[in-house]
């Protein structure tokens, strides 16, 4: 499984009904057991932002991303 597919699964299956927001650090931790390295997760997030699937959000705990209306 690649990082982008895994992120779509996490956002679509688990986060859509919970405001669709996730901190980057949490996403990196979730992907690690799948063998997906942190740089790959960050690259996939960046590409998903450029494709208008995700948008940046600032949380007290740090950077996060949420689903866009397009998603």
Largest beta sheet: strand ordering = 1-3-2
Strand portion, in percent?
15-25%
What is the CATH H-level superfamily?
Answer: Winged helix-like DNA-binding domain superfamily/Winged helix DNA-binding domain
Q: Please report the number of helical segments.
A: 3
Q: How many distinct domains?
A: 1
Give the integer mean of the pLDDT values.
91
Overall morphology: globular
Total strands: the figure is 3
The first-level CATH class name: Mainly Alpha
Radius of gyration: 11 Å
Q: Can you name the CATH architecture?
A: Orthogonal Bundle
* Model regions low in confidence, pLDDT < 50 over at least 5 residues: none
Give the SSE string: HEHHEE
Distance between the termini: 20 Å
What is the helix content?
40-55%
CATH topology: Arc Repressor Mutant, subunit A
* Class from secondary-structure proportions: alpha+beta
Mind describing the biggest β-sheet? 3 strands, antiparallel
């Amino acid at each position: 499984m690649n990082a982008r597919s895994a992120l779509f699964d996490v956002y679509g299956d688990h986060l859509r009904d919970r405001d669709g927001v996730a901190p980057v650090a949490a996403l990196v931790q979730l992907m690690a057991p799948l063998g997906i390295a942190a740089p790959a997760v960050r690259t996939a997030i960046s590409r998903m932002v450029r494709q208008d699937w995700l948008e940046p959000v600032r949380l007290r705990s740090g950077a996060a991303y949420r689903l866009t209306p397009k998603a």
